[in-house]
C-alpha cells in the first residue's frame, strides 16, 4: 500500500508539473491544447 501511494504521488507530481509547463506553452500557441492535456491525464 505504501509503495502504491508513493508511486501515485510521484505520478501526480510529474503530471501536475507537465500540465503546468505544457499549459503555459500551449496557452501562447493554442488554448485548445490545455483541456485536451488535462483530460488525458485524468483518464488512467
How would you characterize the overall build of this protein?
The protein is mainly α and 44 residues long. It is 86% helix and 0% strand. The protein is built from two helices and no strands. Helix 1 runs antiparallel to helix 2. The two termini are 19 Å apart. About 11% of the residues have low confidence.
Topology:
Elements (H helix, E strand, L loop, with lengths): L1 H28 L3 H10 L2
Strand content: under 5%
Indicate the structural class: mainly alpha
State the helix count: 2
Oligomer: single chain
Mean pLDDT: 68
Keywords:
single chain; 44 residues; mainly alpha; 86% helix
Quick structural summary:
This protein has helices at residues 2-29, 33-42.
